[in-house]
Amino acid sequence: MHPKDHIALTGLKISCIIGIFDWERKQKQDVVIDMRFPANIRRAARRDKIENTIDYKKIAKITIAYVERSEFQLIETLAERLARLLLTQFKLGEISLKVSKPGAVRGSQNVGVEITRKSPESPEDLVYFSLGSNIDPAFHLEAALKALDERFGVNGVSHFYETSPVGGKKNQPYFWNMVVAVDSEENPVVIRKWIGKLEKKEGRVREKNRYESRTLDVDLILWKNRVMRGKGFSLPHPDIQTKAFVLFPLLEIAPRLALPGSGKPLIELAHSFRDKGQLIRRLKKPSPINF
């Protein structure tokens, strides 16, 4: 790739809820987005084929859908979250993003922020969560996605997976499971306390049997490449090696990852997984406009 080759998308005007004042929480305002990202222009020009360039029309479509549904207070937050989404969704190595809010400051034509972000250096730099539900799963998983994005910013999302219940009462509805990756330095203990509040908000009722039906189950399964033991938890989470609904969604978004401590690649664990009683089927991919 030529170091000076870029694709630029400028002047994308989108209406959304943005701002800190009461009226700004009710009335949509315009933001203007400009972005540029490295691209192999020479290859695309030589072959003259759309598949040899970055699909900037699709990038614009995803950007519009995401921003229109966002409800951030700060343009700084909007810029950060959008950059992470596009880096992940389109596997970009880098993106420069400018988000402007016309007329936000009296006497000024415009006010905005400009950021440049790169994809994480390694999947080992991220924090991973396993999510599951078998009570109105689409609703509760999408609510959890939104909450994770608002707190951390989502870096990676697996497909939904329909999985057979493990333990619990017979004839339970099948679960929907997924894995989400975020970039965070928050302490695992703090994260787990926040998870408990999120589950409670979504109506989680804890039964004596941890495998009973539930509205939302969120587990912290990996915290970067660390091995940790705490009160009531272990990292890496032991379910990575024994539960299909954790292992296979994790493998999808981190195929090069090796399990901290043992060093076993996830692909090797998946290849040797033998529990045929755990049924798993990949469903649709969650739309990025939902978080």
Secondary-structure blueprint:
Layout: E1 6-16, E2 29-38, H1 41-47, H2 56-69, H3 75-89, E3 94-100, E4 112-118, E5 127-133, H4 137-151, E6 154-157, E7 161-163, E8 175-182, H5 188-201, E9 217-223, E10 228-230, E11 233-235, H6 239-242, H7 244-253, H8 266-271, E12 280-282
What does this structure look like?
The chain is of the alpha+beta class and 291 residues long. It has 2 domains: 6-118, GTP Cyclohydrolase I, domain 2, CATH 3.30.1130.10; 123-290, 7,8-Dihydro-6-hydroxymethylpterin-pyrophosphokinase HPPK (Alpha-Beta Plaits, 2-Layer Sandwich), CATH 3.30.70.560. The chain is built from 8 helices and 12 strands. It has helices at 41-47, 56-69, 75-89, 137-151, 188-201, 239-242, 244-253, 266-271; strands spanning 6-16, 29-38, 94-100, 112-118, 127-133, 154-157, 161-163, 175-182, 217-223, 228-230, 233-235, 280-282. Strands 5, 6, 7, 8, 9 and 12 form a 6-stranded antiparallel β-sheet that branches. The chain has a 4-stranded antiparallel β-sheet with strand order 1-2-3-4, covered by helices on one side. β10 (228-230) and β11 (233-235) form a beta hairpin. The two termini are 32 Å apart.
